[in-house]
Amino acid sequence: MPMKLTPLNITLACVLVWVISEMNLDTEMTFSWGWLITLCVILSLIDLGFRMIFKDLKKLWFAQIAFILVVSILMVVIRVL
User: Taking CA 55 as the corner, what is the angle to CA 52 and CA 56, rounded to the nearest 5 degrees?
Assistant: First the structure.
């Protein structure tokens, strides 16, 4: 069965592309390799959890987009404080 494209998969792909593009620069990486692997594992497990909870693809997309928005907003609020 092929892997379905979901917002968390897209987010993980964007993070990986961003980190790979930073590797060629002379500046220090934003993530260490350990944190990058941890982030990949966590996002994959969260995606798997959402897939187990929501069988309908449309509901899965809405739930994952809502999750990404909530996490993003919390990150901005924590950063400002």
Answer: 150
Residue by residue, DSSP assigns 26-70 as SSPPSS-HHHHHHHHHHHHHHHHHHHHH--SHHHHHHHHHHHHHH
Helix axes 7-23, 57-80, angle to 10 degrees: 50
Lookup: tokens for 37: 């692997």
- The pTM of this model reads 0.80
DSSP codes, 27-38 = SPPSS-HHHHHH
pLDDT by residue for the chain (81 residues), tens only, comes to 566 889 999 999 998 888 888 777 677 777 778 888 998 999 999 999 999 999 899 999 999 999 999 999 999 999 888
